[in-house]
Design a protein that fits this description.
Layout lengths: L2 H4 L3 E5 L4 H16 L3 E4 L30 H9 L2 H12 L8 E4 L6 H7 L4 E5 L3 H7 L2 H6 L30 H7 L9 H11 L3 E3 L9 H9 L3 E3 L25 H7 L6 E5 L8 H14 L2 E5 L23 H4 L4 E4 L5 H6 L3 E6 L3 H9 L4 E3 L6 H10 L3 E3 L11 H12 L4 H15 L2 H17 L6
Parallel strand pairs: 1-2, 1-3, 3-4, 4-5, 5-6, 7-8, 7-10, 8-9, 10-11, 11-12
Helix pairs in contact: 6-10, 12-17, 17-18
Length: 468
């Protein structure tokens, strides 16, 4: 038995307060526990109610899903207030001769955690659930100092330290670059997002990514060189289950077969495009109208997981979609389209035989899920790293990006229809399907995915006593 297999670890996991982060952390926890390691998962089941309130933050808000995007900075400020409870948690964990945790594995936001953990003799590792290429694009502290970027146009091409690892097209568009500029400036929390990221990578022993060499060839070696710390893959942390292909698994665990899955059962194979833009996309009424009318123009079957955008309301009694969609849209598309305002079992939907493609906001988790099930994508990014992900997927030949105005990011129904038809209807769509199927074969290699997790455990054992 290897040392890694023989050593049982006690690992504390502490994700950022967003569901897109907590879910991959939970998957990591499950895989560590399955290998016999003890795992403590830290989050905030209404713990913020015990902390001093942050001005401007709604009562009870504990994750980014509870606030509009412009309030995310206040969630970070509130999360910084968890430093003291975390210190108390560690003090209690090592008190009275109890076993000291072997590791704290934490997210990008928790820059206050490493010094607290160090004071208690506990090493830290960072687990970043983002695309590795995004961190390489933003770069380490020393590279930013040597090649400062302060204007939107500075982010319109890959930085010098990423060439030729990143193709020229993998960059921000003009309407997206404001976020990248802002990431280097202090926000309402008093700390910039990049300072948080630099701090946690510099003060932790190694960094783990929810990615793999097959998805991002060459990026792990590049990041190891750039940050001068080991950079390793945890794999995609998504295991296709046999019962998902017929709509079971995730949807059936509630005790009843999901209604949306039942609707998919009645559709022809690979005839439906699944539409989902996540929970935090800053959609406008015009966005919703153009997207809806584009789907109508495309003439294909669709399942739209509709979420009411933050700050928008629908007419009383009309449901979440209500008056937010064009007048008569649901009636005109009835029979070939379903707008669903309730919960949608996304993994089960993407696994369903009736689904042929995914119109996505290009969140990294959704992108991984799409490729694991071999679904080509229509790419419609909105915030943060989604534009870089969209460009990366387009370069890999697994998706088509919806055409947008470079200045304000607006898009129209014709651009939506054209992208949907290229993937779902036209002859060159077969290329995207073929490339996505190849990615499915690679990412579905469970033996290889298990090896990535085994390497995570080996690093936890190897660097437990030896700093990098």
């Amino acid at each position: 038995m290897t040392e890694a297999a023989a050593t049982k670890l006690d690992v504390v996991l502490f994700p950022w307060l967003a569901f897109g982060h907590m879910i991959p952390y939970l998957e990591l926890a499950k895989r560590l526990a399955a290998r016999g390691h003890a795992v403590t998962f830290l989050s905030t089941p209404r713990n913020l109610a015990r902390l001093p309130p942050v001005p401007g933050l709604p009562e009870g808000a504990e994750s980014t899903a509870d606030v509009p995007p412009e309030k995310n900075e206040l969630i970070k400020k509130a999360a910084d207030g968890l430093a003291a409870p975390f210190a108390a948690f560690l003090s209690d964990a090592v008190a009275g001769g109890r076993r000291r945790p072997d590791w704290v594995v934490h997210d990008f936001c928790h820059h206050a955690i490493p010094p607290i953990a160090e004071a208690h003799g506990v090493p830290c590792a960072a687990f970043l659930i983002v695309q590795a290429a995004t961190i390489a694009f933003l770069g380490p502290r020393w590279a930013h100092a040597a090649h400062p970027r302060t204007a939107p146009e500075d982010f319109a091409a890959p930085p010098v330290w990423c060439r030729p690892a990143l193709p020229p097209a993998v960059a921000y568009r003009r309407h997206e670059a404001g976020w990248a500029v802002g990431a280097f400036r202090p926000n309402a929390s008093g700390v910039s997002d990049m300072d948080r990221t630099w701090e946690i990578i510099e003060r932790t022993r190694f960094t783990i990514y929810r990615s793999c060499e097959e998805m991002e060839p060459g990026l792990f070696a590049l990041l190891t060189d750039l940050f001068r710390k080991p950079t390793i893959s945890a794999g995609v942390l998504l295991k296709p289950e046999p019962d998902l292909a017929d709509g079971g698994g995730e949807s059936s665990r509630s005790g009843a077969r999901s209604e949306v899955v039942q609707w998919l059962d009645s559709q022809p194979p690979k005839s439906v495009i699944y539409v989902a833009l996540g929970s935090e996309a800053p959609l406008t009424a015009n966005n919703l109208h153009e997207l809806a009318l584009g789907l109508e123009l495309a003439g294909v079957r669709f399942l739209w997981a509709f979420r009411k955008p933050s700050g928008m309301s629908s007419a009383p009694g009309t449901g979440a979609a209500g008056e937010l969609l064009p007048t008569g849209f649901e009636q005109r598309t009835r029979g070939r389209g379903l707008v669903w305002s309730g919960w949608v079992p996304q993994v089960a939907v993407l696994a369903h035989a009736a689904v042929g493609a995914f119109l996505t906001h290009c969140g990294w988790g959704s992108t991984i899920e799409s490729l694991v099930f071999g679904r080509p994508m229509v790419l419609l990014p909105f915030i943060v790293d989604q534009g870089l992900i969209a460009r990366t997927m387009a370069e890999r030949g697994v998706g088509v990006e919806v055409a947008r105005d470079d200045g304000d990011g607006s898009f129209g129904r014709d651009g939506v229809a054209e992208a949907v038809r290229r993937v779902m209807v036209e002859e060159d769509g077969k290329v995207f399907v073929s490339n996505a199927e190849k990615m499915k074969e690679v990412l579905g290699d469970q033996r290889r995915q298990d090896q990535y997790m085994d390497e995570v455990v080996r690093c936890l054992v190897r660097y437990k006593h030896d700093n990098c």
